[in-house]
DNA sequence: TACTTAATTGTACGTAGTTGCACTAAAGAT
DNA sequence: ATCTTTAGTGCAACTACGTACAATTAAGTA
């Protein structure tokens, strides 16, 4: 089983289930141009707990939206980056971001 | 107070808070071209309970993404449609839908 | 008089998502 | 031997999200 989508009633439902979640959008957006280590992500995703970060990264990895590369070093080093499928979501998150910015400024 | 966004760390976060929720995307998509009555929406959003539909519609209305028009008749008649702000989200939901369709077929 | 219809509302309950905090591993430096 | 660093894990608590089902309103019809 590739991921944890229960039952999608339509493609919109499916997509929302896959990138819903409190931090998924932000993480994907932050990873848009490059490789980030766990600690860098933790600093970038302001307010996230290590527990949630780990959990969310695992889900994104299971969903094949991000790639996790482990370096066998001590202290440990792990780098995260977008997969091709994940990269396909960037234009759409970008659109959403533009809309969000506009809305925030007009409140 | 216009809506219930607590604190957005960035525009991506803000946008996701505003159209997150289990049914919001689907409802907006269904309303993309026209006016629908409560009962019609209930049939269109397969699996939703009347309680959740009412609640979600209220949130979308408070967020100014949909417009609610009440006809003073008996039995009651209420029509929902997208506001201009809501319409701006359609291209992006459309993109998401395309991505979702592609993903669903490749599983 | 009772029944039907449309769009809800209210209460109670159950599950899923999120948080807080303490804790671990393993090598190298002090 | 203890300290430091990085990337986590484990558990309990809490809150938000979602479900189930009964009840409401008020005019029109049988």
Describe how the helices and strands are arranged:
Two copies of one chain form a homodimer.
Chain A: H1 11-19, H2 24-30, E1 36-37, H3 38-44, H4 50-62, E2 66-71, E3 77-82, H5 84-87, H6 90-105
Antiparallel strand pairs in A: 1-3, 2-3
The structure holds a DNA duplex (30 and 30 nucleotides).
Please explain how this structure is put together.
Chains A, B: This is Helix-turn-helix transcriptional regulator. Chains A, B: It comes from Flavihumibacter fluminis. Chains A, B: Keywords: DNA-binding, Transcription, Transcription regulation. Chains A, B: Residues 10-107 form the HTH hxlR-type domain. Chains A, B: InterPro entries: HTH_HxlR, WH-like_DNA-bd_sf, WH_DNA-bd_sf. Two copies of one chain form a homodimer. Chain A has 107 residues and is α+β, with helices and mostly antiparallel strands. Chain A has one domain (11-105): Winged helix-like DNA-binding domain superfamily/Winged helix DNA-binding domain (Arc Repressor Mutant, subunit A), CATH 1.10.10. Helix content of chain A is 52%, strand content 13%. Chain A contains six helices and three strands. Chain A has a three-stranded antiparallel sheet. The longest helix of chain A is centred in the last third of the chain and has 16 residues, at 90-105. The radius of gyration of chain A is 15 Å and the shape is globular. At the A-B interface, helix 1, helix 2 and helix 6 of A face helix 1, helix 2 and helix 6 of B. Chain B binds a DNA duplex (30 and 30 nucleotides) through helix 3 and helix 4.
